[in-house]
Write a structure and sequence with these properties.
It is a single chain. By secondary structure, the protein is an alpha+beta fold. The chain has helices spanning about 40-45, 100, 115-125, 130-135, 180-185, and strands at about 30-35, 55-60, 65, 70, 80, 85-90, 105-115, 115, 140, 145, 155-160, 165-170, 195-200, 205-210, 215-220, 225-230. Strands 1, 2, 3, 6, 7, 9, 10 and 13 form an 8-stranded mixed β-sheet that branches. Strands 4-16-15-11-12 form a 5-stranded mixed β-sheet, with no helix packed on it. A 3-stranded antiparallel β-sheet has the order 8-5-14. The longest helix has 10 residues, at about 115-125. It is globular, with a radius of gyration of 17 Å. It starts with about 30 loop residues before the first strand and ends with a strand. The relative contact order is 0.26. The model has no long low-confidence stretch (mean pLDDT about 95).
Amino acid sequence: MTKLAPLFAVPAAPVIPVLGENNGFPVHRIFCVGRNYAAHAAEMGNAVDRTAPFYFNKPPTGLLLNGSTMPYPPGTSDCHHEIELVIAIGAPAFRIAEDEAESIVYGYATGLDMTRRDLQQIAKDQGRPWDMAKSFEDSAIIGAITKAADFRPESQRISLTVNGETKQVGHLSDLIWSVPEMISHLSRYYHLTAGDLIYTGTPSGVGPVVPGDHLVGEVEGLETLELTIGPAE
């Protein structure tokens, strides 16, 4: 078959900086784990579910890098912050065992899962998917990646401030599903590849942002993440 030339150019996902490297991490897919901290599940009115993790996706082209300004998203009046640990996958895996899962991790980063909460509530009430609430432009913020050799998730503090006021605080040991469990379970349903990201869920304290807000997210041992909320476009 003749190889077709593209009719036009389409946006590409940004390449994520890696600490200590001149080259960056290209992004293939973004998976997100829902309700992975008990306190956050409770604040959203949900019981903790240890049956299995569940996931949603964000578009790779929706990534914003550290220090960016995020335009306030369209179609919402209640956009919320969710601070998260992000896993960067560096090797292919399918149906990988839990005790081998960390071997495919390239590194870790601090991330923000921005959410159109009002649209999410409408979707929940109607029993519909969360795509409109979660999967939109500029909805996945990420800092530079720290290689796995230099960071291992244990009980590090994870936190977020808005305009200097602490809003979210937790510890990675509070995760309902551990890093190996998440990777192993997700690999039953997808052929994971280098370039995949997994946003691992948020602790309690999620809340709204407005234009002009300055967010600072931290996972102890990783690059601090900063984001400014800009006016709607």
